[in-house]
Amino acid sequence: MAAQRRTAEMRDRVVLGEFGVRNVHTTDFPGNYSGYDDAWDQRRFEEAFRVDVIRQEGDALEFDMVGIDAAIANAFRRILLAEVPTMAVEKVFVYNNTSIVQDEILAHRLGLIPIRADPRLFEYRNQGDEEGTEIDTLQFQLKIKCSRNSQAAKESSDPDELYFNHKGKDHAKFSPVATASYRLLPDITLLQPIEDEEAEMLQKCFSPGVIEIQNIKGKKVARVANARLDTFSREVFRHESLKNLVRLARVRNHYIFSVESTGILPPDVLVSEAIKILMGKCQRFLNELDSVPME
Question: 182, 73 in Cβ contact below 8 A?
């Protein structure tokens, strides 16, 4: 029985210890464990796989992707970061720049401004085409001047008082780069009852909301309320009286994704576009396999 529990833990949990992490690598491949059928089965995968949307607020989206391997989760993250197309400034022609900002720095800053244009309405420019068209290019003109405020006090050194500034914060208020990250679902197990002062000490070792204290028969008893909220600082291992009473682990195939849009497209649209790109990659790989002659 103990051997079965150790095997199940090795297959399903990444365990955090005081000085290291165990069970980091995926080991559930066919033939590695006696009594387990780990051969790929589409029906079994479809039954186990699911996506749960946890929170969507404005440009932020948090969802769970359960039942996949780390390689797939990381591929999905990388596609979100680098392969979902957006519109951005590529060329800047400067006709007259009398500011203290060099042309190159100004062009770089313009390139960081999110352009709120749906890239799905445009086409990629053909290779070799020098001139853009209305179906693949947007063109903007920036003509602006910073004028001195003659009403400002002579002793003033505040730029907001000295000049009539034309600021671009209404257009560049979003983060210039979309972030996409994931983490494994935390799993915290209390190996035996923890009461009174130790319960209060245990609660302070974790993020707020992870451990709650209940009053049972006049005693303060700790229990895990919401392990999802924890960041796993492993503070509990600093306390000799607690470190052997708690097991810290992460669920191997349960990924918590956080996606933040720059504002160009809603985060749920970014996720759906990333899924389409991943499906296209898989289909191209299958086509390559089919084109290879079998010996």
Answer: yes
Please state, in angstroms and rounded to a whole number, the distance separating the CA atoms of residues 51 and 170.
Answer: 35
Residue type, 294: M
Per-residue pLDDT tens digits for 201-243: 999 999 999 999 988 888 889 999 999 999 888 888 998 888 8
Residue with the two structure tokens 């560049």: 172
Give me the phi and psi of 197, to 5 degrees please. -65, -40
Average pLDDT over residues 276-282: 90
Residue 26 is encoded by which pair of tokens? 């995926």
Show the CA angle centred on residue 67, arms to residues 261 and 234, nearest 5°: 75
User: In sequence order, what are the beta bridge partners of 250?
Assistant: 14, 186
Contacts of 120 (CB under 8 A, 6+ apart): 273
Per-residue pLDDT tens digits for 177-200: 467 899 999 999 998 988 888 889
Pairing of strands 246-260, 60-66: antiparallel
CA distances from 175 to 89, 166, 168, 263, 266 (A): 16, 20, 14, 8, 14
Burial of 140 per CB tally in 10 Å (0-12, 13-18, 19+):
exposed
pTM, entire model: 0.76
CB 118 within 8 Å of CB 265: yes
Residue 246 CA to residue 108 CA, distance in Å, equals 50
Characterize 48-65 residue by residue with b for buried, 16 or more Cβ atoms within 10 angstroms of its Cβ, and e for exposed. Answer: eeeeeeeeeeebebbbbb
Helix (H), strand (E) at residue 254: strand 246-260
